[in-house]
Each structure stands twice: as C-alpha cells, then as structure tokens.
What we know:
- The complex is a heterodimer.
- Chain A has one domain: Orthogonal Bundle (MetI-like fold).
- Chain A is built from nine helices and six strands; from the N terminus they run ααααββββββααααα.
- Chain A has helices at about 5-35, 65-100, 105-120, 125-135, 195-220, 225-230, 235-265, 280-290, 290-325, and strands spanning about 145, 150-155, 155-160, 160-165, 170, 190.
- In chain A, about 40% of the residues are buried.
- Chain A is an alpha+beta fold.
- Mean pLDDT of chain A is about 85; it is low at about 325.
- Chain B is mainly α.
- Chain B contains 15 helices and no strands.
- In chain B, helix 8 (about 195-210) crosses helix 10 and helix 13 (about 295-310) runs antiparallel to helix 15 (about 340-375).
- The two termini of chain B are about 50 Å apart.
- The model of chain B has no long low-confidence stretch (mean pLDDT about 85).
Amino acid sequence: xxxxxxxxxxxxxxxxxxxxxxxxxxxxxxxxxxxxxxxxxxxxxxxxxxxxxxxxxxxxxxxxxxxxxxxxxxxxxxxxxxxxxxxxxxxxxxxxxxxxxxxxxxxxxxxxxxxxxxxxxxxxxxxxxxxxxxxxxxxxxxxxxxxxxxxxxxxxxxxxxxxxxxxxxxxxxxxxxxxxxxxxxxxxxxxxxxxxxxxxxxxxxxxxxxxxxxxxxxxxxxxxxxxxxxxxxxxxxxxxxxxxxxxxxxxxxxxxxxxxxxxxxxxxxxxxxxxxxxxxxxxxxxxxxxxxxxxxxxxxxxxxxxxxxxxxxxxxxxxxxxxxxxx
Amino acid sequence: xxxxxxxxxxxxxxxxxxxxxxxxxxxxxxxxxxxxxxxxxxxxxxxxxxxxxxxxxxxxxxxxxxxxxxxxxxxxxxxxxxxxxxxxxxxxxxxxxxxxxxxxxxxxxxxxxxxxxxxxxxxxxxxxxxxxxxxxxxxxxxxxxxxxxxxxxxxxxxxxxxxxxxxxxxxxxxxxxxxxxxxxxxxxxxxxxxxxxxxxxxxxxxxxxxxxxxxxxxxxxxxxxxxxxxxxxxxxxxxxxxxxxxxxxxxxxxxxxxxxxxxxxxxxxxxxxxxxxxxxxxxxxxxxxxxxxxxxxxxxxxxxxxxxxxxxxxxxxxxxxxxxxxxxxxxxxxxxxxxxxxxxxxxxxxxxxxxxxxxxxxxxxxxxxxxxxxxxx
Lengths: 327, 377
C-alpha cells in the first residue's frame, strides 16, 4: 500500500472513529440523563392519553385520544395549511411576477414594492402582525364581515366546503343563526384565526419569492424567441402561450418546488400563534412527557421524508426535461 | 459620364425638436401606452389614493409623538403611538441588561461594526487583519465585554438579562462567524475524494437543510443538555446560538459548494503544476476565486439568517421581535394601537438591516458582472 493510500485510509478511519465516539458519548450521556430524570426511553408514550384539546382537526380528536393521534392531527394540519398557503402563494407569486414585468410603470413599481418589502421582513413578524394586529380585533360572529358565503370574524374564517354528509357531494355553506347558536358561524370549513394568519402570511411571504422566480424564468427566455415567434406570424398571446411559457416553465419549476418545500417547513412557525400543526403538537407532547428524543426524532423523520420526496420529484422532472430540449 | 449637382439654395430650416418635456413621453408610453395600460394605471392610482391618506393619518398626522403613558394613545382616533416606542427604546435595544453596564454592549457592537465595514469596503487595505479580528479576536472580546470578566473589573451579567436588538445582533453575528468557516469546511468535505468524510458531511448538510429551523432549535434546546454530562449543561442562550450556527453552516455549505464548482478545474491543475501543495492551492488559488464568485449569495444567506434569528423566541430567548411583542402587554401603555405600532417599528428595524445587506449584495453582483464582461471581450 502506498503512503498516499495509507494516509487516506488513516484520515477516513479517524473521521469515522471521531463521529462514532461522538455518537457513543452522546448516547451514553443521554441514557444516564434520561434515567436520572425519569424520562421515558421508548415510544410507548404514543399510546397514552393526550389530555389536551386541539384548536383545529380534520379527523376526530378529543382530549381522550392518544399522543400518537395528536401527532397525526398535527401532521394533517401542517399539510392542510401548507396546501392552502401554497395555492394562494402560487397565485400571488405569478400575478406579482408578471406584474413586475409589465410595461406599465406603475404596476411594475407596485409589484416591486410588494416583493422588496415582504422579502425583507421576518416571516414571524408578518404572522404576528396578521394575527395580533389584524385578525384579533375583528368583531364577533354576530357582526361578521361576510362576502359571497365567506364569514370573517374573531373566531376565524368560515368558507364553503364540499360535504358528503348526505351521501352525495354538496356544498356546505356557512351560515349564522343567532337563535340556534349565538357564539359561532355554523357549517362550512372553519379556519381558526391562527390558521388564517399563518396561511395569509405564508402565502404573501412565499409569493414574493415565487414572483422573483417567475420573473427570472420569463426573462431567461431570450428576446430572439419572441421576435422569431412574431416573424412566424404568431400573435402576442400565441407567442406567450406556445413559445415563452413552455420555455419559462422549465426554468421556473425546480425552484418553485423548493419554495413549496420551504413553505411547508416555514409552516412550523404555527407554534408561535398556537395553531396545532406538527411542531406545536410536538412541543406540547414534549413538555408533557419529556420524551424529547423520540418526539424530535419523529418530527425530523417526517419533515425529512417530505423534503426527500420533493427533491426526488425535482430530480425526476429535471431528468425528463433533459430528454427533449436544449438543456 | 458623371452628373454634377450643385445646391443652389440653402436647406430649409427644420422645425425645432419635440419640446415636450421628457416626463411627458415617459407618462405617455409607460403609463398610458394603450387602453389596458391606461386602465391599469388608473387602478393603481385609485389604490394609492385609497390607501395613502389612511396610512399618512395613522403613521404621522394622528400619531402620538409625546406622552407620559398610554392615556393619549388610547383616545379614540389616535394613530400610531410613537411615544411608546421612545419610552421603550432602551428595553428594545438592551433588554434587561443593567443600565450602568450598557456601554459594554455599545463598545462590543461598535467594534463589530468597524470590522464589518473594513471587511466589506471594496478598497479597504489589509483585509487579512480585519478578517482575523472579526473571526478570531472579536468573539473573545465580545464575550468578555457582554458576559463580564471579573478579572478586568467587568461584573458578570447573566444571559437571562440580555435581550432586544443586542441578542438579535449577537445571534446573527455569532451565526456568521461560525457559518462562514464552518460552511466552507463542510463544502470542502462534501467535495472530498474520501468517501467516509464525504458521507458524514452530506449527511449533516442534508439533514439540517431538510428540517425546519424551529426543529433544530428545539433539538438544540432539549437535546444538547441530554447529550452532555449533567454538569456541562450549556447556557440557555448558547443553545439556540448553537442551533442557529449549525443551521446557517449547512446553508452556507451549499453556497460555498456552488462557489467551489464555479472555479475551473484548470486553476487547480495549474496551481499543482506550479508546485503548490494541497493546502496552498486551496488557500491561494481556489478559495479566493470560489468565495468572490458567490459573495452576493453569501450576503443573501446572511439576510435570511438575520430574519431567522427571530425564531429563537420559541425557546424563550428575548430577541428584538420578542421584546417588542412582549412590551405591548405592559398595562401602562396597552391600547388598541400599541401592537400595530410595535410591529411597524420592528418592521422598519428589520427592513433597514435587510435592505442594506441586499443592496450591498446587488452592488457586488454588478461589479462581478462587469468584471466578467471585461474578461470575455
């Protein structure tokens, strides 16, 4: 074996040994500390009764449900909020991105103002602003703001939802009837104010990033393409639809997907306003049981799984693109 | 055969050029280019007319600038309560740091500011000294100043008293000091030809990047004390600082990797051909080019890091936003406009820092682009 090869093996062995020793030491310390503090060391606590209630749940949940079910509710809430905010952010982002490219000076400046301001403010500040300064002072259910079937009050936002209660799909309209229930709007899907603030802030924040991605994507299509399309006799709308959009989308999609990923991770800021997402539920369980290792391991595994699945999707998409085009 | 031509009369005088002022063309083309554009302009104008007076009244005209307590701010129709910001300013800046010791915070951050300007100023000389000062000397001096050194006559100040902008800047600065070298090391490890080293670095980077910062902070807060021997329990502020530094390092590693990838292979080979060793090649040839190419991305990363420092509130640390959010509950001032006033003020604070950093990044980007154009032609 040459001296160089020997050195390489020695370095690698040292790295692995150091990492292994670190883990072993941490593990030994953790076990001693856990035993000393009487903290559970297995995942058995997942079947115990949770004893708390959650402010939002898409599946039945009572204080008598288990910790495991609470985590499931948290995960579903994370996905629900992320999906709503993601859809809204896509709409806002594309609108603002195109607006920034508009030939109309005032529209481009307005979109620029939005993007530059929102991107440079911490997301947490925006969530707190919407929650504390805008949504909390809203009037009660009896004086709700309502518009086209939407009710907005200090109990949250009620929106029409698809319901299968009668066996066939029907729209469940929210309605307020002081005689039946003075304290709340009934029917529909009710998002608590915490969720509204979270969705709104996440959508506006991520939208500002998406706007920049869209702008960069459209600008990446060379001007010659537009001119060639015009030379071939395509109208401006046709050129946009048939020439610019397919080429821009290729550039836009990969960073767009990583924005959705960032949005999902950012939805963990729900913990600050007390919306029962995965992180908030985990925090509560962690405080009640002390099972920090297990709870954090579950969280990290779930978020990592989401991340890796998304990344795999991007890779797949990139590989497919390399097939047909210039890339 | 040639034809000759002789002009017999002077050319007629042309009319003067279009005397419309330049803004007229601008308005006509950029605001009222066609019917749609005109409608859009009117819509934007309507929005401004609708929103501006309310904003003006709330922020300036109806705002309460001077008041001993919240009584004036609670009056109906009162706007932003700037008097409250003025009264709470020391708390927002220093938290509960003992008032007679606050000069220590000022000195520490003045020193940091000088070193940062020295590092970022494009034409400043001897940046090596500044870098050494910032990354090696400053952490020690800063720690001694903030935390106290009884040997030097500086009484100890416990971290439970630290708060406000002091903590935000401290967490951000310590994140930068750790993340820049840490990220470069992780990136180098990721590109290493030794599989064991590479795997460890990739594992760490992708793991940290795959989970939310809050999870990393939870982990640092709840698990660090578990992993260490009981009498080593790290300070309550040190734990989130560790989490932030770890998180920032992983993101910095990806930026540094992009920089390393941008250095052409020939550079490394040329350095080796000149007889430079592995370390010398990295230090004098590869790293300077790699880092210079990604300065804008590095600064943008710091903008994100600065915004992310707000999350340390989740483990009970009083950073700037947390102090602003906590102060609104003070019964002496509490009122309907206090929350909004506080958030607007906090927004201006973050906006000022982040915009300054972003515009610096854009300036460097322009300089780099200009340099590249020169190289090509």
